[in-house]
Amino acid sequence: MASKAELACVYSALILVDDDVAVTGEKISTILKAAGVDVEPYWPGLFAKALEGVNVRDLITNIGSGVGAAPAPGGAPAAASAAAPSSEPAKEEKKEEEPEESDDDMGFG
């Protein structure tokens, strides 16, 4: 769980980003002093250094866009073939399936 100092620095950085102000250790310290939050002196500089060169606004707006956005592999062709009824009888697959490995083959036996 994040400490009070970490959370205070995160909120201060978000305030600065929201106001379109550059995130620096001095500005984070100023916000923390105005809020009456006492933190170790290294925290503001640490957060400013971590956010250096990072577009925080893009980070916030793109949360979740990369995870789970792609459809499951093989889902669309199976759905398309099931949705489109065929007038021909289903042909048997001539392809041989690979035999499944037993537990003994994997060393679990």
Automatic annotation (TrEMBL):
GO terms for cellular component: cytosolic large ribosomal subunit. Signal peptide: none annotated. One of its GO terms (molecular function) is protein kinase activator activity. The keyword Mitochondrion does not apply. Residues 69-109 are annotated as: Disordered. The keyword Cell cycle does not apply. Keywords: Ribonucleoprotein, Ribosomal protein. It comes from the Eukaryota. Residues 98-109 have a biased composition (Acidic residues). Residues 69-88 have a biased composition (Low complexity). InterPro entries: P1/P2_N_sf, Ribosomal_P1/P2, Ribosomal_P1/P2_euk. One of its GO terms (biological process) is translational elongation. Belongs to the eukaryotic ribosomal protein P1/P2 family. Plays an important role in the elongation step of protein synthesis. This is Large ribosomal subunit protein P1. It comes from Papilio machaon (Old World swallowtail butterfly). The lineage of its organism: Eukaryota, Metazoa, Ecdysozoa, Arthropoda, Hexapoda.
